[in-house]
Amino acid sequence: MSFKIALLPGDGIGPEVIAAAVDVLKLAGEKFNVEFELKEYPVGGISYDKHGTPLTDEVLQACYDSDAVLLGAVGGIKWDSLQRDMKPEAALLKLRKSLGLFINIRPAKVYNALLNSSSLKADVLKGTDLLILRELTGDVYFGEPRGIDDEKGFNTMIYTKKEVERIARYAFEVASKRKKKLHSVDKANVLETSQFWRKLVINISKDYPNVSLEHMYVDNAAMQLVRDPRQFDVILTQNMFGDILSDISGMITGSLGMLPSASLGNNYALYEPVHGSAPDIAGENKANPLATISSVGLMFIHSFQMNKAAELIEEAISRTLSAGYRTKDIAQPDNVIVSTTKMKDLVIENFNIIYDEQALGVFTL
Ligand code: IPM
Ligand code: MN
Prior knowledge:
Low-confidence stretches: none
Largest sheet: 10 strands, mixed
Order of helices and strands: EHEHHEHEHEEEHEHEHEHEEHHEEH
Number of domains: 2
Structural class: alpha/beta
CATH class of the largest domain: Alpha Beta
CATH superfamily of the largest domain: Isopropylmalate Dehydrogenase
Oligomer: single chain
Helix content: 40-55%
Bound molecules: 3-isopropylmalic acid, manganese (II) ion
């Protein structure tokens, strides 16, 4: 079996976390007899500097021609004053829109070893395992008209029936395979967009009588996420609210450096860490590569039906953390602080150990 993967390292710490994840990807490929054809392309600020645009047509075409895309991060102060369509972030938005990636999956699961790395209390977090399903190609992110002049700045918050229905249906499918509990998060007490969203979600829910549906306003949801995250299993929400709530859920895992994501559509898929390009630590071999390594795990599940390889990655990360190794972002006083590359080496070492254990039947996935 052979798969084509487009690598888009991007800016800041992007290249470092992608290099780490690629080593894990290659190892899993060898162990599971899957060939990965990897090609790297510029995206974001680095592409703007080279080509005058954050995303060239060639790179977009390369993504269309790939089985999956793995992206690092884009952005940096250097490009902050550019107009919106030239900013590194615009590349990400264009990729999402062009590839039709309307489903954004952001799981927040707490590793026991990290219970004390969060600013939240360990007994509040323990056992949390939730999934944010963020709509990714609609909302105020893409609504027209939008603009800015000396007197005003404006955007349009809009959802079409088709956009809401397809993500809602996906969310009910996912919820029915998990704990059969779905929270739809909106701001229907104020926004027409959200009233429309809620009405359609209720309609779709009739096809899933075994899933319990609860509606929650986004401000309350933000509070509930830090008060009692275990009450959630699957959270379905609009693009903008999902952006904010998924950063909050980063603290559940101890650090934004832990959160992976998958962006899926009907024909394409892109995987990336939730965190940004962290220009302040770029090039210092300090960044946490675990979110990107976990994103490779999501790629195995959603693009390549390699669930065992994904479980192996998760277990390898878990053991590495349990042994007390941490990058700086998740370190506690008694931990061993390691670099990006060292963390990756440790995950690889554990991956190999677990692989052998399961071959011998000592460990079952
Ligand atoms: C994210 C990021 C992006 C978003 C930015 C970089 C455009 O914050 O993926 O969460 O707002 O969607
Ligand atoms: Mn975000």
